[in-house]
Each structure stands twice: as structure tokens, then as C-alpha cells.
User: Which sequence fits this backbone?
């Protein structure tokens, strides 16, 4: 009886080991980083994971998160970043059937990719234009000597205009005796005018009296 029990225990253990072996070999994680065409490329492949429950995967580049997703049986993805700067990728996988990572199905791996390409060199500034040099040529100017002669200046005589000392004639004011006296030519018209004026007044008075009557 004891032997039968021992045999049953050993057989059960073998069955458990054989049953777990395919499951262990089924989980195949792959994380690869490198340079491709001057860019930093990270490839993550998770194959044959147990899809009866959800598994999770996250990818970060330094402080920047570039992936955080759940998957079932398989996960394949490639990430391409600039190759002019280095990258520190961290891939974290959590399998539901290996929560503590004892079997290696759950893990956290860091992949460093150095610079893949140098940044483009900016074009050189255009060369300055050549300096323009100027040449000054002095042309001698011919001068003709002029004859120096003697000139005689004639000073005109001085003329002085003195005021005349002769006394001015005195004009005598006209008196009453010098005024023209009215003659007969002036008296006759005045008398006739007075007579006509008086006659007109008399006629006017007579006409008014007749009109009143």
C-alpha cells in the first residue's frame, strides 16, 4: 500500500512537470534595439503568451511614455526615434500567470541606443564680396604765367557843394485893398435874382389866399 501511494505521488509530479513544460516553453519575449538608416529603432515581440487573461506591456524613453497597452496572446511593435540623440528605452512586461517574474515571463528591460547619426551641419555663410580698391591719379595742370604790369591810379578831384548865403525873397501877405472889388458886371445879376425871388413869393402868397376862399 505504501509503495502504491508513493508511486501515485511520483506519477502525479511527473504529469505536472510534463504538463507545465509546454506552457513554459510557449512564452517567447524578444526586445531588440539598434540603429536602422540613421534612426534609433526598438522592436518588441511577445509571442505565445497565455491569452486566457490580459497581459500588459509598457515602453518608455527616458521620462517620456511611448507605449502602454494590454494584449492577449501576442504583441509585436517597432518604435522609431531620432538618431541624433541617445535613447534609454525601458520595456516592462507583466504576464498574468507570472506576476512576480519568477519564470521570466514578466520582466523589465532597459535598452540603450547611442547616437545613430550626427545632426546636419548648417551651410556655411556666403563669402563676403571682394573689397573694391580705388586708385587716385593726379593729373598735373599747366599754368600760364601772367605778365605783371604797372598801373597808374588817377584820383578824381574833390568837389564840395556849399549852401548859398543869398537871402530868400519875402512874400508879402495880401491885404484887403488887394482883393478884387465887385464891379457893375456882378451887381446887376444879383439884383435881378432878388427881384425874381420876391416876385415868386408874392405870387405864391396870392395863390394860397385864393385857394382858402
Assistant:
Amino acid at each position: 500500500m505504501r509503495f502504491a501511494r508513493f508511486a501515485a505521488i511520483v506519477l502525479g509530479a511527473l504529469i505536472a512537470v510534463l504538463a507545465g513544460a509546454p506552457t513554459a516553453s510557449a512564452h517567447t519575449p524578444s526586445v531588440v534595439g539598434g540603429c536602422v538608416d540613421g534612426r534609433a529603432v526598438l522592436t518588441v515581440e511577445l509571442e505565445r503568451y497565455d491569452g486566457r487573461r490580459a497581459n500588459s506591456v509598457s515602453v518608455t524613453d527616458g521620462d517620456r511614455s511611448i507605449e502602454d497597452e494590454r494584449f492577449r496572446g501576442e504583441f509585436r511593435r517597432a518604435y522609431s526615434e531620432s538618431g541624433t540623440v541617445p535613447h534609454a528605452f525601458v520595456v516592462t512586461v507583466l504576464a498574468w500567470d507570472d506576476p512576480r517574474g519568477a519564470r521570466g515571463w514578466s520582466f523589465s528591460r532597459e535598452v540603450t541606443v547611442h547616437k545613430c547619426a550626427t545632426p546636419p551641419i548648417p551651410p556655411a555663410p556666403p563669402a563676403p564680396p571682394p573689397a573694391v580698391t580705388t586708385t587716385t591719379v593726379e593729373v598735373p595742370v599747366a599754368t600760364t604765367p601772367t605778365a605783371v604790369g604797372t598801373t597808374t591810379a588817377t584820383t578824381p578831384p574833390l568837389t564840395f557843394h556849399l549852401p548859398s548865403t543869398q537871402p530868400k525873397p519875402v512874400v508879402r501877405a495880401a491885404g484887403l485893398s488887394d482883393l478884387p472889388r465887385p464891379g457893375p458886371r456882378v451887381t446887376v445879376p444879383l439884383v435881378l435874382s432878388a427881384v425874381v425871388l420876391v416876385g415868386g413869393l408874392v405870387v405864391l402868397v396870392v395863390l394860397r389866399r385864393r385857394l382858402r376862399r
About this structure: The longest helix spans residues 184-212. The CA atoms of residues 109 and 180 lie 153 Å apart. The radius of gyration is 72 Å. Residues 16-24 have pLDDT under 50 and may be disordered.
